[in-house]
Design brief:
The complex is a heterodimer of chains A (about 250) and B (about 200). Chain A has about 250 residues and is mainly α. In chain A, about 65% of the residues lie in helices and about 5% in strands. In chain B, strands 1-2-3-4-5 form a five-stranded antiparallel beta sheet. The chains are: A mainly alpha (about 250), B alpha+beta (about 200). Chains A and B meet through helix 1, helix 2, helix 3, helix 9 and helix 10 of A and helix 1, helix 3, helix 4, strand 5 and helix 5 of B.
């Protein structure tokens, strides 16, 4: 009985000790736990390899100039004269045309469910949705929109490294792997050279199609770019970090 | 002895339950805070406020629930030591203003987004992650809120939108800045950004 009385408070003390051990550890070093937390490193920002930073920054400034002095006025005019529904329809139409890229990218990653959903969406949107202008597939169970896949993501899923960070004229942020993926996308896309499925696909028409696609996608890009530009201490660095995190996330998913 | 063991397990069990429900309560608190800030931007009650007044009001709502310094300090990271005490305070305040400005201006002029909260996941010691989706202009964005139990209670330390961590993004920028620039340059840059009426107005890159 004596032993019991002795052990009980000791056990309670141990329990209390166990619960307060965290605080003791925190006070052990020079930093408190909270202070140490503020100084911890990030996984996400770990190493964006940017050996061409000086050239990339110049290209970034060039793109910035083009965006603000050519694309922005064009977008302002486009959004002013085009009703929202038409803008959305144009964006949907060009998105639908890129179905072969998404299908191939899903299959190359053995994402058969993704390939099935993309195929179903393409079939529904191309028919019921009038050549992809509308997206009735959104309302069909099992065919809700999914994240778009591309060849750059395929390379990432295969374990190919990103390579150096690049800023491409007119196209913006990229890296060596995504640049290769960009050419991969083009080779799969039946509307783009070098494997275009359309005979007599004159360069004027190709340019017009690519230009319209670019314009249809631009309002969102411009808006996001402007937000980033205005809320960033260093827009180049912000875009580099944001792009890299986004792509790493897309690959890991 | 058996009786003691039972009591110990009971206490530990109760502590565990209390910890889980405290975490769950964070979801409600976060939801309430998001709703309150969206009310400031979209509700008729605040319609007469100027952009600056709205930013201040949003700040009040945020600060009534969370300590914003935590997120900014986390974004600054080790660069904190490159600044003197006065510079630290100034940078903390200016980055806070910049983030709030971007938040309010980014949402203004659009329809009120629908925010739905999802699962709460424990991601480490005293750290949780709360999933949410935001539907804005017919587009769905996936947003994660990361919280940590600090001495001052549960605090948001990062917001991850579409795989992009806000704290990491600012940390990357500040790291890059300090490779070539000083704290004084950083303060000047932040003041320059805040002086613009719109976030995209003639910002020098």
């Amino acid at each position: 009985m004596k032993t019991q009385k002795f052990k009980q408070p000791l056990a309670w003390a141990s329990l209390i000790g166990l619960l307060s051990v965290t605080n003791l550890t925190a006070q052990d070093g020079k930093l408190t736990e909270d202070e140490a937390f503020f100084f911890e490193e990030f996984d996400e920002s770990a190493g964006v390899y940017d050996p061409f930073e000086s050239v990339n920054r110049l290209t970034f400034e060039f793109n910035d100039f083009v965006f603000l002095n050519a694309l922005q006025p064009l977008m302002d005019a486009y959004t002013a004269i085009t009703p929202d529904t038409v803008e959305e329809g144009a964006s949907n139409f060009f998105h639908n045309l890129r179905y072969p890229v998404r299908l191939a990218s899903n299959l190359l990653q053995c994402r058969f469910k993704g390939a099935w959903i993309e195929t179903g969406r393409f079939a529904i949107n191309s028919t019921v949705g009038i050549v992809g202008i509308l997206t009735p597939a959104d309302d069909y169970e099992g065919f809700a929109p999914i994240e778009s896949e591309d060849v750059g993501q395929v390379f990432g899923a295969w374990g190919i490294g990103e390579g150096p960070y690049l800023v491409l004229p007119f196209l913006g942020p990229s890296n060596l792997r995504d640049l290769a993926g960009f050419f991969g996308d083009r080779s799969i896309n039946p509307l783009k050279e070098p494997f275009s499925m359309i005979d007599d696909w004159k360069w004027e028409w190709q340019l017009a199609t690519s230009g319209t696609d670019y314009i249809a996608r631009s309002p969102q890009i411009i808006e996001r770019y402007n937000q980033l530009r205005g809320s960033s201490i260093d827009p180049y660095s912000s875009l580099k970090n944001g792009y890299t995190q986004y792509r790493r996330g897309a690959v890991s998913e | 002895m058996k009786f003691f063991s039972f009591k110990a397990y009971l206490v530990l069990g109760l502590l565990l339950v209390a910890s889980v429900s405290a975490q769950e309560a964070q979801k409600e608190k976060l939801q309430g805070m998001i709703d309150a800030t969206l009310d400031v931007i979209y509700s008729q009650t605040y319609a007469s406020l100027s952009a600056n007044e709205k930013q201040l009001k949003v700040r009040q709502k945020l600060e009534s629930s969370y300590d914003l310094d935590v997120m900014i300090r986390y974004a600054i990271g080790k660069n904190w030591r490159r600044m003197n005490e006065q510079e630290q305070l100034e940078v903390l305040e200016l980055v806070k203003q910049l983030v709030l400005k971007a938040y309010v201006i980014g949402l203004e002029g659009k329809d009120r987004p629908t925010v739905t909260f999802g699962e709460l996941t424990e991601i480490g010691k005293a750290r949780i992650e709360i999933e949410s989706t935001m539907v804005l202009d017919a587009k769905t964005y996936y947003i994660l809120y990361r919280l940590r139990q600090m001495d001052s209670g549960w605090q948001i330390y990062d917001i991850v939108a579409e795989n992009v961590s806000m704290s990491s993004n600012y940390r990357g920028q500040i790291d890059d800045h300090f490779r070539k620039g000083s704290a004084a340059d950083l303060i000047a840059r932040l003041k320059d950004l805040l002086a613009k009426d719109q976030i995209n107005e003639d910002t020098k890159i």
